[in-house]
Amino acid sequence: MELFVYKGEFTLPSIDLDCLRVLMYIKLADVKGIKIRQNFSPFKSDNGFLPYLIDTTDNKKYCGYEKIVNFLKSCGYVLDASEKNEACLSFIRQNLYPYFMYTLFGSPQNLDETRALYATRTPFPFNFYYPSKYVRKTDEVCQALANFSLEDPIDHHDTAEMEAKAKKCLNWFSEKLGTNEFFLNGTQSEVDATVYAYLAVILKFQLPNNQLQAHAKQCENLVRYVNNLTKKYFDESECFESEKVKEQNQKKEQKVFTGQEEDGSPAEIRKRYIVSGLFATTAMIVYGYLHGIFSITLAEKLNEDRTTFSDYDREYVGDDDD
């Protein structure tokens, strides 16, 4: 078996929530004979996201956390499958996931850094496109649960309820864990794989605006939980922290000390979305042209109806989906 995940950062084995969930599930279930592959394109994944797993015995592919774990369970690698386990996972999904995603891919102060983190772990030219899929997914969550779009002015981002539920979930984590090593009566379960992944990202990511991190750090048992599981189940060779990130962390500390702040004005936010979209579109068009996916001949161009620049602006510039 081969598992394809995003490479780690901040001393973690992966930067991605679902990649971390699968990696920890594999460790807890003691899955044997699986090779971990990093820095592969999500383009080869059926759902356009990492992680995905290939069963090398029949070359069948399983994409996404749920399908991967269900396949592992069918192979006999089963953790706690009780109703209590499922109820806990559902509670986490409903209460923590929305604001967790907004923190990473919706907050104007954090968006550029999170996108860059994913882009540096995605091969060219897909690195211009695939990080945007997480932004669009987060936008769908915000529109469904909080009635605002990420493209709205920042003062319309009403995240108060999402934030309150997320912090309540972190409090529940702390109360449920207590002094135990694992969550469900001190026995390792799928809940641990999920909770570890959320907390690892929340506590380890260094972002300009991370309210969940500030809250979680007040719960010493949660900090200890992440550190202990990381040390117990992952070798140092499996985790990673780049020199660049170390330097960036030093610069951020200096900014905090001098009182500098990130520009989060509505105009700047919209500019970032437009520029990112143009880069993504251009990169994919160039890639398709160079690899023969499509071609544009001079004759075809001459036969096309002429379009003025004003027509072009009206038709395309406002298209944020690109």
Description:
The protein is mainly α and 322 residues long. Helices cover 57% and strands 5% of the residues. Strand 1 (2-5), helix 1 (17-28) and strand 2 (35-38) form a beta-alpha-beta unit. The chain is globular. It starts with a strand and ends in a 5-residue tail after the last helix. Mean pLDDT is 84; it is low at 261-266 and 294-322.
Rg is 21 Å
Total DSSP helices: 14
Helix-residue proportion: 55-70%
* End-to-end Cα distance: 35 Å
Overall pLDDT score: 84
Q: Which oligomeric form is depicted? A: single chain
Give the CA-based shape: globular
Strand order of the largest sheet: 2-1-3-4
E-strand count: 4
Q: Uncertain regions: pLDDT < 50 for 5+ in a row?
A: 261-266, 294-322
| Biggest sheet overview | 4 strands, mixed
Task: Give, in order, the helices and strands.
Answer: EHEEEHHHHHHHHHHHHH
- Class computed from helices, strands and strand pairing: mainly alpha
Q: Estimate what percentage of residues fall within beta strands.
A: under 5%
Topology of helices and strands:
Blueprint: E1 2-5, H1 17-28, E2 35-38, E3 52-55, E4 60-63, H2 65-74, H3 83-95, H4 97-105, H5 108-119, H6 130-146, H7 160-177, H8 190-204, H9 211-216, H10 220-233, H11 243-258, H12 266-290, H13 298-303, H14 309-317
Parallel strand pairs: 1-2
Antiparallel strand pairs: 1-3, 3-4
Helix pairs in contact: 1-8, 3-8, 4-6, 4-7, 8-10
